[in-house]
């Protein structure tokens, strides 16, 4: 079965698409039938029995760990789970032993979960360097690198920015950070799912992302990757029973930390979310991340070109190396009073996009097609 046949087959797993054109995956993704069934079976076991034993819960979490690792080219022991991206980034900022006068670097115009952990460190005497964007609101890798000095300990950046959909050159940033002895942590929530993410190719120390957007997952499951070679140098800011080598040996408090990324996990997992996300992970791997990215790069290029061809200002970069699956444009340049008015018109036509910072953001996924993009354009172009 070729990619397009698989794509159309999996489209049928999302009933919401029978009643609306969904183009808001950068905001939140719909749930699949397979995900709903898996979660329903787990919940029914609690209500009607027989209740599934812990071993089954743990097996499902281990399956998530292996599938997530396969999706981003990481070993299962380099994967841990948190509840969301914000907590994961805060965990990373607390994994470093800071001294007053140290600094952390983050770009401006990022989602708050990237910037707030840096701001929190100010209470410890750490300087939060929020690096200005360019005149066209793009993040500049050169400006981020120029902000590094001998007191820089950590840099946090998005792989894909959430408003403009700009893809950053992580390999360039990683080379500069490693040369300077700076940790590089990447927020990949707008990248994993619509693009092929290979952590070994990127080279970053750590990476994290949530699942409710492009991965169609329930809330409450965030994935953490830490390069195995960098793991031992990081402090453990939180501990739970799974952080140690033998978690069921409850009273051996002095046992060593497990030599795996799960040392960063704290307390019970969101087991329901693990049951819900696994069918989606299997779907992504069956489709092939490289196939999804190629398809979406073509689809978003079509949208980008159709908008600019009609004189509409698109703020997302056009170069393939600088974008992913988000296309953001200015509604005013299309003759609308503001983005809110256009959003209302699209909602009335059962076309779902989002408005961010006064701009219209369109974020299609693998099951969307040019016909749906054309219907979007029929509303946008007056």
Q: How would you sum up this structure, described in words?
A:
With 382 residues, this protein is of the alpha/beta class. It has two domains: 3-23 and 288-380, Aspartate Aminotransferase, domain 1; 44-285, Aspartate Aminotransferase, domain 2 (3-Layer(aba) Sandwich). It has 13 helices and twelve strands. Helix 4 runs parallel beside helix 5. The longest helix has 21 residues, at 289-309.
What key attributes describe this structure?
single chain; 382 residues; alpha/beta; Aspartate Aminotransferase, domain 1; Aspartate Aminotransferase, domain 2; 2 domains; 7-stranded mixed beta sheet; 3-stranded antiparallel beta sheet; 12 strands; 13% strand; globular
Shape: globular
Strand order of the largest sheet: 2-8-7-6-5-3-4
Q: Which segments are poorly predicted (pLDDT under 50) over 5 or more consecutive residues?
A: none
Number of domains: 2
**Sheet of most strands:** 7 strands, mixed
How many runs of DSSP E, i.e. beta strands?
12
Order of helices and strands: HEHHEHEHEHEHEHEEHHHEHEEEH
Mean pLDDT: 96
Number of helices: 13
Strand content: 5-15%
SS class: alpha/beta
Distance, first to last CA: 40 Å
Helix content: 25-40%
CATH-derived topology of the largest domain: Aspartate Aminotransferase, domain 2
Based on the structure given, which CATH architecture of the largest domain is correct?
3-Layer(aba) Sandwich
- CATH superfamily membership of the largest domain: Type I PLP-dependent aspartate aminotransferase-like (Major domain)
Query: What's the CATH class of the largest domain, please?
Result: Alpha Beta
What is the CA-atom radius of gyration, in angstroms?
A: 21 Å
